[in-house]
Every structure is written in C-alpha cells, then in structure tokens.
Amino acid sequence: LRGKMVGHLSWHQSALLFEDYSSIAAIATTPVGVAQLQPLQSALATTLWVPASLTDTPQTQTYPGSLKDHLSQLWEQTDAIVVCLAIGAVVRLIAPLLSHKSTDPAVIVVDETGQFVVSLCGGHRAGSDRLTHTIAALLGATPVITGAAQRANLPGIDVLGEPFGWQRGDGDWTAVSAAIARGESVQVLQSGGTTLWRDHLPPEHPFQWDSPVPDATAQVWIGPELPPGDAAISTVAWHPRLLWVGIGCERGTPAAVIDHAIRTVFQAHGLAEAAIAGIATLDLKADEVGLLAVCRDRQLPLQCFTAGQLQAMPVPNPSAVVAAEVGTPSVAEASALLQAQTAIAQAPDTPPAWLRVPKQVVRLPDQPGAVTIAIAQAGQEWTGRTGKLWLVGTGPGDLSQITPAAKGAIATADVVIGYSLYMDLVKPLLRPGQIIETLPITQERQRAERAIALANWGLTVAVISSGDCGIYGMAGLVMEQLQAQGWDGKTPAVRVFPGITALQSAASRVGSPLMHDFCAISLSDLLTPWPMIEKRLLAAAQADFVVALYNPKSQTRTEQIAIAQRIFLQYRSPQTPVALVRSAYRSDETVTLSTLAEFLTHPVDMLTTVLIGNQSTRRHADWMITPRGYLGFESTPVPSCG
Ligand code: SAH
C-alpha cells in the first residue's frame, strides 16, 4: 500500500471512497488515457494497468501479452474494471467474458477526452452506475447511465435495499424492472424494515404502498417473510435482516443438525433465511464447534450472553431443567430477544423487539444432539455495514469550486445531509436513490445528531457545509457530538473533505488581500460570548492582522459590525481598504471596495464576508493588494488610541 501513516490510518485507507469494492482495475492503452485515469488511483485505490509499450509510465503496472488475455484474468479477480478505450473495442473485448449480471464485474468506459464516463455493464448489481457517478465526479466528467431507472430518477429495484443491508430474495427481477421502466403501477407490500427509501423518491414514482392497486402488474415484497409462491403478478422480494435466531444445543450437536433446525423452523413459519441478522446464545456455547461452523458458512455474527444477562430477560417458556443446568431458565428465547433489543442503538420511535417464534426443539433421527431454537424480530434491521461520516466542504457555491474528492464523496454517499440552499447548489451531483435530508439552518445540532444516528446504523453519510466544513461548519458539531457519545475514533469512520472557505473565495474576487498574516473572526454571538469576540477583534486590530469577518450582520444582530469598525479605527487609518464580498461565486455575487471609515454605508448581511486590510494593504484600481513582505513598504502611521 502506498501512502503516509496519519495516526492509526494510512492516508490511503482513509481516502477510499469505495470500500465496498475490494479491487478496481483501470486500464489505459495510451499516454492520454493514463493521464485521464491517474486521478482514480488515490481516491479509489485502483491499479492502473498499461501495455508493455508504456512500461516507463510511473505508478502503473504493465500487463504482459494481449489486452484480451489480461481482461479475462481481471474478470475473475476484480469487482470493477475501468477502461479508457473506444467503447466498441471494449464491447468486443468483454463479449466472450460476459456470463451473468450477478457475477460479472462492473465495466466502465472513460472516453479519451475525459468528458464522459459510461456505465457499460453491471449497472445495478455490480454497482457500475454508482461507481460511474463517483468516477465522473472525481474526473469532472458527465456520467452516462443508460438504465431506465436512471431516466426516471429512481433507484434500481434490484439495489433498492442495499444501503440498509437488505438481502435480495427470489423473484422475477427482470419482469419487475421492466414494469417499472414502462411506468406501470407497482404494488409494494412491506411488512418490516425501514421506510426511509420511500421518502426521497421523485414525485411521479410508480410505487404504491398504502392501498391495494387493482391494475398493478408487478409487486415488491419487503419483509422477513417469504412471498407467497402463487402470486398472480411478477414479484420480487427484499429481506431486511430483522430476525435474530436464539440457539441452545446439546454439547457436540453437529452443524448439519443446527442447520436443519434453522431451515425447518424458518420454512414452517414462512420466514426467509435471508432475513437472519445473526445468531445469539449463551457464552458457554462460544466454542460449540457445530454452531461456529453454521455461523461461518452462513456468514452470520454470533453473539454470546452470560447466564446472568439471559436470566434477567422475561420469556414465555422458561425451563427449570435448563436453569438447573446452565444458570438461566432460557437460552434460545432469552438470547434471541436480548440481541434483538440491543444489537442496534435504537432510534426512540423504533418498535420494540418481539418473540416471533417461541422455542422449538429439533432433532434429526439418525444424528446425535438436539437444538432449541427461537426467533426474535428486532424493531430495526441490522445493516451489517460499518458506517461512515464524511464531512464535506462544498466551497462558496459554484460547482467548479468544489474539490473532485468532495464531489466524489457527495455522489457516492448513501445519505446527504445539509442546509437546503447548499443542497440546491450540489443537486447536479446527486444520484437517484440517495437519501437527501435538509433541515433549516437553525437546526445544525439536529442535523449532526441525525447524521451520526444513520452512520451508527451502518450508512455512509455525507454532511455538507458551504465553504470548508471545518470552518464555522458542521464538522465541529458532528465531532463534538461523536465525542460526547463516547466514540472510539474509528466507528463510524470519519473523513473530512476540505473546501474553499469564504475568506479565500472572497479574497480571490478582489486580488490578494490575505497575502500576509491574517485571521478570521465570526461576529455571531450565538455560540460564542460577545466579550470573547470583542477581545479577539481588539487583539487582531492591535497585531495588524488582515481580518476576514464571517457572519458580520444579521437582521436582528446589527450592532456588532459597528463595534468592530470602531475597534479597528483605533489602530488603523480610516483609509484602510475594506472589501465586502457577498455571495461569492453564486449568481447574485456582489463585490464592493470601500474603506474602514465608510464601508458601513454599504449593505452588509449574512451572505457577506468583510475583508479588512492591514496597515500595508493598498487599493489599486478595483483590486485590494496586501504586499507579500513589508520591506520597502512604508506603513501608515498608527493613529493614537483614545
Ligand atoms: N463554512 C463556511 C462558513 C460558514 S459561516 C466557510 O468555510 O465559508 C457563514 C458565513 O460565511 C456567512 O455569514 C458569510 O460571512 C460567509 N460566507 C459563506 N459563503 C459565502 C459566499 N459565497 N460569499 C461570501 N461570504 C460567504
């Protein structure tokens, strides 16, 4: 792995936008292609492959032999292949390799001019559409997605539940996708799992969940139950992982017997095994070979509780015999219920866990051992994912002023949270099926709490702030709150994406006012006591810092800017240049150059940044220039105080 160590994470690891993919291979066959694809290396950890003719290209790997042979090797080893080559050539090369959309890797084509990124195949299941959005954002290119869901601005039905860790069940996915593409009504029968996916659909979406739809041609079944096998219309099923299986067994019960017990009990109750979140038991069973094998084969977490913990859980079928043997009257029921209640930090409005299937004893005639099994249903599904919190600065407003990494983060995240004005500015980067949440500007704390809750649940959440997220932005609120919740510094994984802050964007409009030592002071006393702000104004004025005033004046808070002006006039000439930059890089931008004595005769509001020059700052035509050094510059004499 490349990259420097930063604390416990290498830069390389923390930089990854697409950890869902264990490997992404990029291929370029020309120097121009190499240049196009190189930006993907650090953000996505791609290996960039080149032919032997380009061996001298730095940071690339050479494939021996033909591209055709190399592709067929990559096909088996990678999750996604990104190629910079004519699309026709790519189609011919991959044609013999295509087998099925559930196993083929994502294939993405970047054109040599770098203008377009095409999701060629594996759009939904292999994640090609989503990765295409990320790559396009990173390269500043246009994503080309040709699926019908994209046109209708809908999430693909076969990826709908992925953010929440839902498992795909049986069904005619092609028929249901086709019905959606034709714009036909689709009946949704949802018995469990989050309804968050419904809140962010476009208004003209085809899904109906409130009432039966007589003319529906397709249905989507969402819940832990198996769909009825005899549905008259095309059906697909998604299974949120809501079920926790409590298991007790005799010592030495073989894996086959435990597996059989799970299968028969699920079948008997019409439940989908795909809806299993995990298995819970008594700590004495932590080394039970058969149980461990079942968990490993089914890739399920095993949660063990002490007898004391299980004893405290009220259950419908306690057993005195079991109590005498292991110190708790229930293993299966109590552990299933306890795990269903505690596996996820529940939101306050989450329904309580309940015992879906009371304990059953299962044996196999010709096998030793016996299994006691019970199933509890949680109020919220287990996503099985590790959450991420991305704190993203979106710059002053214009899309061209956002870093490619920040764009990539916004396009990739499952959830984007931010103030509605900024959400409008980044709208072109958003992707169908993303959960978009806006809250009024006064509710930053709620926004931070919401973001943390969703990340703790396992989602990838981008919190956006204008400018830089860490300068009077959301990063501080989110990290403070994480700390207050006892965050271990790792889960959810936090990454901060820097942005161009207002003092930089404002300065760029008037020249080079920040050229020497400068500072930022916010005049908002909502979160900072005014005497502290006044102290800093005084210190900055005395020390001859160039100063950028953020939050200079609101409708109700008008005095502070006048006080600031008086403080600066004690230490600087009335002729000191002052710039008022309002809505920099937005359509309603205004720039006003004035002086310390007169700037308050111009409008100043909450969309304005005020730049006050130091004693050497000069005005020249429409520019504000602070010299790089003070040698040879005569400074204006400091007016005496008082
Ligand atoms: N995180 C932001 C600052 C938020 S505080 C950043 O790094 O830029 C809000 C203040 O920032 C506003 O009151 C204004 O003073 C300033 N500001 C934000 N965007 C601006 C823009 N486009 N033009 C001028 N000032 C801006």
Small molecules (ligands, ions, cofactors) in the structure: S-adenosyl-L-homocysteine
Span of the ends, CA to CA: 62 Å
Continuous helix count: 20
State the shape: globular
Approximately how much helix is present in the residues? 25-40%
Q: How would a crystallographer describe the biggest sheet?
A: 7 strands, mixed
Strand residues, percent = 15-25%
**Class by SSE composition:** alpha/beta
Give the neighbour order of strands across the main sheet.
5-4-3-6-7-8-9
Structure, explained:
The protein contains 20 helices and 32 strands. Helix 19 (530-542) packs parallel to helix 20. The strands form seven sheets. A seven-stranded mixed sheet has the order 5-4-3-6-7-8-9, sandwiched between helices. Residues 1-14 have low confidence and may be disordered. With 642 residues, the protein is α/β, with parallel strands linked by helices. The protein is 29% helix and 24% strand. The structure holds S-adenosyl-L-homocysteine (SAH). Residues 396-397, 465-468, 471-473, 501-502, 505-506, 550-552, 581-586, 606-609 line the site of S-adenosyl-L-homocysteine.
